[in-house]
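To illustrate the input format used throughout this study, we show a single complete record. The first block contains the structure-token representation of the backbone; no residue identities are included at this stage. The design step must infer an amino acid for every position from geometry alone.
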């Protein structure tokens, strides 16, 4: 498809956003109105007003019993008018063009009780025939991605990327600890004949420099950008990426989740803090709930074209596959419009997480857990941590930070921030804990709020010191 055609489609979609949304909802309801789930509310009707009046707002947990029934072998029409052929655990958008180096890992495919495959979508994709076209644009072969040993797979993926960093060969020998035969065979084909000059260059850049600053551009000099996610909790890695990439553009192309594909970034070279996503009205039917200052929800539910500039919303998704008015949990702010389609930026929190802590008496306390690279003489200055706590509240300009400052000063509703200093490596241990429980290492995000008792224990066991600030943050 040509660029001109792409732009014309975008213009049509965004200019006719309301019509597109109405058509999407009508198509979804006609296909699914007679399912067991929707028929309770619509009695076979595809009327939009009846849908808004009768179909409840739900979370994933509310529809999980229906999903479990399909997984256990009951007919798909419990939820969907079309046959359900697989369950995917995560939506990952592929690359459309160019040769890319991207770390991918697969997991064993399990099955539901009735035999449907169950795995992250990237695993199903990497083990399907559709990967053949993607493989041509990738620096790695499918056998390396499919290696069950994540450490061997990571090493081989990185090696293949280095081999092709200058469109030449790196070395003729693969480390003996790589025992997966598929990995060894695939990498050996790519390695070709030895190239000691390139090997020396890689060694010099990795071990002969005082710092790894700019290591990405030093090893891959033709790199034009780093494609990554810069929203939500992953925003914390922006300084790290800028350090290693010599401040190459960080590109966040789209906003997608397990529920649906939401929208695209029309200004991909914008700075991470300015990234907004234009919602595409043909992807799903979108509604939005006004988000109140305390992290709850209030006000009416509005359609995509009726959101207001500057307001905060939680999106609801009605998709083609059986989710209806399902809460996503993200908090978004309207930053503008492209034709009739709104543009949103993320807030660095989820609904219900704007204020979290432990209730002590009638006050809510807030814990900030910090892992420091180094401290003066091995100690931590109390005054410095007080100023840290004070500055954290004072400097924040987000919706959540403003709310926190206000409630912190009102009637002592929120107590002082507790700063906990933990041992170096604590957050690595936290990541290892979640990965050991099945989280993908490539999709792991350092949590902003932890409810797991076991995960909290990982942090508690490594606390070195605790501090409280008595100062109230400025309004």
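Output of the design step:
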């Amino acid at each position: 498809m040509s660029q001109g055609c792409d732009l014309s489609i975008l213009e049509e979609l965004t200019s006719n956003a309301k019509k597109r949304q109405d058509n999407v909802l009508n198509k979804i309801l006609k296909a699914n109105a007679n399912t067991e789930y929707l028929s309770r509310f619509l009695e076979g009707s595809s009327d939009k007003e009846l849908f808004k009046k009768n179909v409840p707002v739900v979370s994933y947990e509310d529809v999980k019993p229906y999903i479990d029934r399909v997984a256990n072998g009951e007919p798909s029409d419990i939820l969907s008018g079309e046959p359900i052929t697989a369950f995917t655990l995560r939506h990952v958008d592929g690359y459309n063009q160019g040769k890319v180096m991207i770390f991918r890992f697969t997991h064993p495919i399990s099955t539901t009780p009735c035999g449907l495959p169950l795995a992250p979508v990237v695993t199903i994709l990497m083990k399907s025939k559709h990967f053949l076209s993607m493989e041509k644009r990738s620096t790695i072969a499918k056998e390396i991605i499919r290696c069950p040993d994540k450490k061997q797979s990571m090493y081989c993926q990185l090696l293949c990327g280095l081999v092709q960093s200058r469109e030449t060969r790196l070395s003729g020998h693969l480390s003996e600890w790589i025992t997966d035969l598929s990995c060894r065979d695939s990498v050996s084909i790519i390695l070709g004949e030895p190239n000691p000059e390139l090997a020396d260059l890689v060694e010099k850049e990795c071990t002969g420099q005082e710092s790894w600053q700019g290591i990405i551009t030093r090893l891959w000099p033709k790199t034009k950008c780093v494609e990554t996610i810069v929203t939500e909790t992953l925003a914390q890695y922006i300084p790290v990426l800028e350090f290693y990439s010599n401040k190459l553009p960080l590109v966040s192309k789209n906003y997608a989740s397990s529920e649906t594909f939401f929208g695209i970034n029309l200004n991909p070279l914008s700075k991470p803090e300015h990234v907004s996503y234009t919602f595409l009205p043909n992807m799903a039917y979108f509604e939005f709930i006004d988000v109140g200052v305390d992290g709850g929800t209030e006000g009416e539910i509005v359609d995509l074209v009726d959101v207001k500039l500057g307001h905060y919303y939680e999106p609801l998704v009605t998709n083609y596959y059986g989710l209806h008015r399902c809460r996503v949990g993200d908090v978004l702010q309207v930053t503008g419009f492209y034709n009739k389609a709104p543009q949103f930026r993320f807030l660095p929190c989820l609904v219900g997480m704007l204020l979290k802590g432990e209730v002590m008496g009638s006050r809510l306390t807030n814990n900030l857990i910090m892992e420091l690279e180094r401290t003066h003489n091995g100690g931590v200055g109390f005054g410095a941590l007080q100023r840290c706590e004070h500055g954290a509240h004072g400097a924040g300009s987000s919706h959540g930070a403003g709310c926190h400052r206000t409630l912190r000063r009102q009637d002592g509703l929120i107590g002082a921030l507790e700063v906990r200093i933990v041992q170096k490596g604590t957050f690595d241990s936290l990541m290892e804990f979640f990965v050991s429980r099945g989280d993908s290492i490539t999709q792991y995000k350092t949590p902003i709020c932890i409810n797991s008792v076991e995960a909290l224990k990982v942090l508690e066991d490594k606390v070195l010191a605790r501090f409280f600030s008595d100062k109230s943050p400025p309004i």
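Structural context for interpreting the output: The first helix runs from residue 3 to 15. Residues 358-468 form one domain.
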